[in-house]
Design a protein that fits this description.
Distance between the termini of chain A: 37 Å
Oligomer: homodimer
Keywords (chain A): Cytoplasm, Nucleus, Protein transport, Transport
Main location (chain A): cytoplasm
InterPro entries (chain A): NTF2 (IPR045875), NTF2-like_dom_sf (IPR032710), NTF2_dom (IPR002075), Nuclear_transport_factor_2_euk (IPR018222)
Largest interface: A-B, 26 and 26 residues
Protein name (chain A): Nuclear transport factor 2
Shape of chain A: globular
Strand content of chain A: over 45%
Strand order of the largest sheet of chain A: 2-1-6-5-4-3
Function (chain A): Has a role in nuclear-cytoplasmic transport of proteins and mRNAs.
Structural class of chain A: alpha+beta
Helix content of chain A: 10-25%
C-alpha cells in the first residue's frame, strides 16, 4: 500500500477511535510503546491507555489539518506527523495540537504505535 | 550521555546553525536523509541544504518552547519533537512551528538527521 495512503488510513482510524472509544486505542500499542503527552512520559499499552482515559475530558473531537509521513529506516517503520485541532465538549474554542507517531509493522501485516508524542500548540 | 541532554544539545546546535550559517546544516544530513518542509519533500544532504538555503528569507531567529524525545528502536535512533516560534527579519509577528527529527548514530559517536519534518502552526 502506498505509504501516504497508509499514514492517512492510520490517522483516520486513530482519531476516530480516540473520539468514540478511547479504551479501544489499547490494541494500537504494545509493551515497548512510549507516549509523551504534554511532557508526561508513559510506557506500555496498559499504562498508555490508562493515561489517555484519565485525561480531564469526556467528549472530544479531533479535526486533522495536515499529515506528513516518511519511512524511518530499514526495519520498515513509518513516521507520521499530524497537526490539527481538538474540540472539547463544552469549551468555546478548540485547541491546536501537533502529534507524531512512529509506526512499526506487525507480523500480521498491520502496524502498531512504538512512539507517540503529543503537544498542544498554544497561541 | 543522557538522551534528553543529547536531544537538547542537538536542538540547540541545529537552530543556532540554521540562524547563523544555514549552509552549515548540510553536514547534519546524509544521502538517505529526508526532509518534508511544509509538505514539500526533499532527499539527500545536498538537495536538503539547497532547499533550506532557498527559503524566502535571509535572517531568522528560532525560539524553542518545548523539546520531547524518545528512543526509536533497536538501531539506537532517537526521535526529537520540537515546538517553538520563528522570527523573520522585518516581520512584525513571529510564526509558530513544530518540527520532528529522527536522529541516527554515526560510527564516530555523533548523530545525523535521517528524517526531518517541519510544519508551521497557523492560528
Amino acid at each position: 500500500m502506498d505509504p501516504d495512503a497508509l499514514a492517512k488510513a492510520f490517522v483516520e482510524h486513530y482519531y476516530r477511535t480516540f473520539d468514540t472509544n478511547r479504551a479501544g486505542l489499547g490494541s494500537l500499542y504494545q509493551e515497548g510503546s512510549m507516549l509523551t503527552f504534554e511532557g508526561a512520559k508513559t510506557q506500555g499499552a496498559q499504562a498508555i491507555v490508562a493515561k489517555l482515559i484519565s485525561l480531564p475530558f469526556q467528549q472530544c473531537q479531533h479535526q486533522i489539518s495536515t499529515v506528513d509521513c516518511q519511512p524511518s529506516g530499514p526495519a520498515g517503520g513509518m513516521l507520521v506527523f499530524v497537526s490539527g485541532s481538538l474540540q472539547l465538549a463544552g469549551e468555546q474554542h478548540s485547541l491546536k495540537f501537533s502529534q507524531m507517531f512512529h509506526l512499526m509493522p506487525t507480523p500480521q501485516g498491520s502496524f502498531y504505535v512504538l512512539n507517540d508524542i503529543f503537544r498542544l500548540n498554544y497561541a
